[in-house]
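The instructor's notes for this session suggest beginning with a concrete chain rather than abstract definitions. Hand out the sequence below and ask the class to guess, before any prediction is shown, which regions might be ordered.
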Amino acid sequence: MCPVSANKSYRLSFWFRLVFMLGLLGPAATGIGASELVSNRLPEFNKVQLTVQAREILRVPIGSGENELGVITPEEANPEGPMSFVVSGTGGIYVLDQTNSRLQVFRDGRRIKTIPIPGTVFIDLELLPGGLIALLDNVVDKVVVILDQAGQVVRKISLDQEGIAEPGGITSLYCRTEGLWPGLLAQVDSNSILLAGPDGRPAPRIMTLPGILNWSGLRLLKLEMEGERLAAVLKSDQSLQTWKKYQASFSLPVGRVYGIWEDKFENIYLAANIFNEKKEASEVIIFEPGGRELARISLAVSRSPHEINNPVRVTPDGAIYQLVVEGQSVVIRKYND
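After discussion, reveal the predicted structure:
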C-alpha cells in the first residue's frame, strides 16, 4: 500500500484512492519544505490522464417556463447562458438564471424552488449562513445584493468605495464561515476583498488579502501564470508568509482559468480551458498535499459560444461540477461520486 504519514489527520480522498487502486501512483511525497518548489513536471509515465465518465445530474430545457433556464442568443451581441451556479452543503443546486431575473433551485434533477432576483445583470452568486444569498453586479450598479430565500432584498453593499480599485475586476464571490477572516469575499484575479461578515453585514473596513482563502479559512491559494502553457498554484502556510508551489504544464495554451480550490483532504484543484487554432480542451488538474499530480480530469468542451461566468465548481468534499449549454438544454454534470 502507498504509505501515509501517521501524523496526517486527513483521510484519502476519492481521487487519491482512485489513482492508488489503478496502481499508477508511487509513494506519497513527504518531507518537502514549505519554501521549496514542488515540481509537477514529471515524466509522462508518472502522469495520470483520466477520462472520467461524468454523471449527468441535471438537464433543463432552454426557455422562460417554470422548469426552464434562460439563454440569450442574439445575432449581434454576446450570447449568454446562466452565468453561475453553486451547490449547497445539502446538495441543492442554485442556478443564476439572470436572463429570467431569478434563481432556479434544483434537487435530484428537478426544480424545487424559484427565487426572484432584482435584475438581469448579476454575474455570480454565493450562499451565506441563515439561508441568505449574495448576488454580484460588478458593472451596472456596482453592488452586492443580499437576498433572503423569498427573494426579498435584505441589504446592499456598494462596490464603489475606497479600498476597491475597480469593481469591474471582481469576477466572483465566496464565503468562509470560519478561519482568519470569516465572511463574504470578492475575488479579483488571485486576490480577495473582505466585503461582509458571514451574516452579510458590511465589514467595518475593506480588507484585501493576497490570495483566495482555502475551505478552512486558514491558508491562502493564488495562481501565477509562468508562460502560456505553464501555471503555478501557490499555497501559504498559516502564517501567510511562506508559500508552497505546485506547478502544472498544459499541452495547449491556457485560454481561461476557471478556478483553484482546496478540498478538506488538502488536495488542490486547478481547472482551465486550453486551446489553439486546431484544438480545444477543458480539464481539472488535481494535486495531492505533498505536491504530486494525482490526475487530470477531462471536462466537457462547450460547442456553443454562450458566456458562463463560473462554469466549474469544486466542493470541499472534492466533487467536481460543470455547467454547459448543449443544444436546447442547460446541463450540469458531476465528475465523481
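Then share the key points. The chain is about 5% helix and 45% strand. The chain has two domains: 1-78+215-337, 117-213.
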